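Many introductory courses stop at the sequence. We go one step further.
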Amino acid sequence: MLSSLSTPSPYAEFQAELAEIHRHKWLVSEKEGRDVGFERALTEWVDHHREKWRRARELAQQTKAA
């Protein structure tokens, strides 16, 4: 069981996820040469990247706690 000191707060997790969505928005916007908008970036990130990102964070937390 992970201690509360090693488990990020829900708000910290939200902030980290939001930062990744903004990063995705920036990358896609740069690639297309225009602002693709937050809604599109959010939808794409959730559909294509969220699950893998969460698994990687969970693994990193488990590794850090061990």
